[in-house]
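User
Please review the sequence:
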Amino acid sequence: MKTLSNINLDPLFLEDINIDDYIKFSLLPAIYNNKQIFATIQKNLIDALNFYNKQNYDFEIYILDENSFNQLLHKFMNKKTASDLQHSSIEEEYEEIDLNDFIKNEFDILHSDNSAPIIKLVNSMFYQAIDKKASDIHIETHEKYGLIRFRIDGVLLNEAQVDKNIINLVINRIKVISNLNISEKRIPQDGRTQVKINNKTTDMRVSLLPTYFGEKVVIRLLMESNNIPSLEELGFSEEIKNGLNKLINHSYGMILVTGPTGSGKSTTLHSFLQIIASSEKNIITIENPIEYKADNINQIQVNEKVGLTFATGLRSMLRQDPDVIMVGEIRDQETAKTAIQAALTGHLMLSTLHTNSAVATISRLIDIGIKPYLLSASLIGILSQRLVRILCDCKEIDEISSKEYNTTIYKAKGCNKCNFTGFLGRKAVGEIFIINDEVKNLIAKGATDIELKQYMTKQTTTIKDNILILLKSGQTSIKEAIRVGLKD
């Protein structure tokens, strides 16, 4: 019996053997120097020899070091998992199991006779993500381990650290249920899947990206229309709610919601649409992705592979006799011009833009080629918003910040209730810029951002002011306030 170290062996797949048994007893067929051999590991040698004595193969046995054996085992597991999962059902039972408790028994997951433990692990991951109201699941492959993280209230939190071999099996499972290519690991892939938990179906958008140490998966959890919060539930101030209700009553014109990625723009737009929606109105949206499925509106998914972009979709929507149009995002001049034309011709147009303030939205549109007179004629209001995390009841006094602001300021502490983050839920804050006749004249005359901001601050409370109100009322911390824009 010979030993081999630091070697990368190729697996040998024999047609007439049950590979599950060979994995179970740590006796793996392999190719070494063009010769068929069995490979095993010192700690499982007795089990391997007992199993070998029952076989009809007269291969020489080699003892590998642990890393070499695990590398060979991983190749077998990839092949086995791909085969098992393609014949498994995705209608599985979802259980409330702590991921870290489940992952503690890593040997059983890797050496099970079937794919059930991996399926159960993935199902439990989905269950916990939905239960904790995560918006995204991140699955990352690092050099020596894998990481599962949930984005909760806009912040990524570590959920579980797992063996790198297990994370590869998890990714394979996700590929199968998303109808993606298991064997392809060199290029990005995008897919979709559904899970049903407690008779409630959740759509998921899956994105895979090859990284240096393996693949990274991001799963966006998409919501149903009955999960869309109302304007009251979003947490906006009375000033903003009153302004939005006035804008929604317009029969035509353009309303823009602005802010950085993850600031809740799409959710706010869908809240608008649920207020506006009625049997008397034809409402059409084009989105990427469709984050909320709604039965009372017509929704179009962007598909750039076949030429369905925001701009081309919007042009086609105008021939569908719409009353209200929602464009997920204005990214370019073509989309902006078509949106403004729609607003000028009797349609209520809703869209989003990535700008940091309401005033900056006007200069951004002018920069991409929109004439000021067209902007002043079509724009009726701009909402710039952020989502601020709210402190849990376990909060504690921040002595340093309290002295700086001359009032009691609180900071995050962490407890079981808030999953030791110190925060529980989020509240929307913003600034609303109603485009009245005076503002229209300022825009048409080419007023600067400074001039427009001076006018707006007389008309409404700014984002910074609203964040400061949350800070001084003890609802959020100084770190969170700075993160969302207090010092911008």
Notes: The first strand starts at residue 2 and ends at 4. The two ends are 69 Å apart (CA to CA). The chain is about 40% helix and 25% strand.
